[in-house]
Design goal:
four-stranded mixed beta sheet, six-stranded mixed beta sheet, binds zinc ion, 2 domains, alpha+beta, YaeB-like fold, Nuclear Transport Factor 2, Chain: A, Integrase
Length: about 270
C-alpha cells in the first residue's frame, strides 16, 4: 500500500523583513524551507541569546564518535536539551527534537570533528559553523546543544539565511547610539534604512545620522506610534506614503519598529 503523503500546513515562519510566510509545507519542522525561516518576527537582543558555546571543562582529545547516521534517529535526547533548544530558537519541543536529530545526522555525514573528554563524553561540532552536540559516555543520549548563533538554527544557517542581528539589521554602533538617543522604541537597521531611503531619499552617514534619527522620531511620534496600542504586531500605513511593520514581544514591550516599506499612498487629511 502506498504511504499517504504527509498533510501540509501553512509555514508559520517570518522573512527577514518580518512578513509572515504562509507557504504550505509538509516538513516535520514546520518550516517551508524557502522563506528565511525566522521563528520570531523581529530579532531579540543580542546579549540575551548569544554564546551558548559551553562545552564543560574539558580537555578534549580526538576520539571517534562511533555512531552511524541512521542512529541519529534512535538516540535519546535529554529533556533539558530539548528545552534549551526550544527556548533558544523559539520552536515547539517536537520541532526541536526533529532539528536536533537532523543536526546530528548532518554532523556525522559531513565528517565533523569528534572528541572525547576525560569522562568519555563525546562532542561533535563544526568549529567554523558554530553548531555542535555533546553525547553521553555510552553515546545513547544527546546531553548538550551548543551554538554560537543567536537566532538561526542549523537548517537556516546551512540554507544560507543571514542573521538579522549582525549587520545590516542592527546597524553600526554609531547608528544604534543615535537611534537610542532620539527614539522611544527600538528600530531595526532595516527600518532605519527603509525610512532614510523611502522618506528622506538619502543615505545614512556619520554626518547626518543625528538629524535622521531626530526626523525619524518625529515621524513615528506624529504618524505611527499613536495609532498603535502595542498589544499586537501590526502592519500599519502612516498616511504619508509608508507602511510600517511594528512588533512587540516579552522582551520589547515598548515595541520594535521592524521595517518600513514605501507604498506611495498618501491620505493627507
Ligand atoms: Zn516559509
Amino acid at each position: 500500500m502506498p504511504m499517504p503523503a504527509p498533510p501540509k500546513r501553512a509555514c508559520s515562519r517570518y522573512s527577514a523583513t518580518g512578513t509572515l510566510c504562509t507557504t504550505p509545507t509538509a516538513r516535520a519542522d514546520g518550516w517551508c524551507g524557502v522563506c528565511d525561516g525566522y521563528t520570531v518576527r523581529a530579532p531579540r537582543e543580542e546579549t540575551e541569546r548569544r554564546q551558548r558555546w559551553h562545552w564543560g571543562p574539558g580537555p578534549w582529545h580526538p576520539a571517534p564518535l562511533g555512531l552511524e547516521t541512521d542512529e541519529a534517529y534512535e538516540i535519546e535526547i535529554h529533556p533539558h536539551v530539548v528545552r534549551d533548544y526550544s527556548s533558544h530558537h523559539t520552536v515547539p519541543p517536537k520541532t526541536a527534537v526533529v532539528q536536533i536529530r537532523s543536526l546530528l545526522e548532518d554532523l556525522i555525514t559531513s565528517g565533523a570533528p569528534t572528541e572525547a573528554d576525560v569522562r568519555g563524553r563525546r562532542r561533535i561540532y563544526l568549529p567554523q559553523g558554530g553548531y555542535g552536540l555533546m553525547l553521553s559516555q555510552d553515546r545513547g543520549t544527546v546531553v548538550r546543544y551548543c551554538t554560537r548563533h543567536a537566532e538561526r538554527t542549523w537548517a537556516q544557517y546551512r540554507g544560507g539565511v543571514h542573521s538579522r542581528i549582525s549587520t545590516p539589521n542592527r546597524g553600526t554602533a554609531w547608528q544604534r547610539a543615535a537611534l537610542a538617543e532620539h527614539l522611544p522604541v527600538k528600530v531595526t537597521a532595516t527600518a532605519l534604512h527603509g525610512y532614510t531611503r523611502h522618506v528622506l531619499g538619502t543615505k545614512i552617514t556619520r554626518g547626518n545620522i543625528d538629524d535622521i534619527a531626530r526626523r525619524l522620531a518625529a515621524h513615528l511620534n506624529e504618524y505611527v506610534l499613536p495609532k498603535w496600542d502595542r498589544t499586537a504586531d501590526v502592519t500599519l500605513a502612516d498616511g504619508q506614503g509608508s507602511t510600517w511593520v511594528l512588533a512587540v514581544d516579552d522582551r520589547s514591550p515598548e515595541g520594535v519598529v521592524v521595517a518600513n516599506y514605501a507604498t506611495g499612498v498618501r491620505t493627507e487629511e
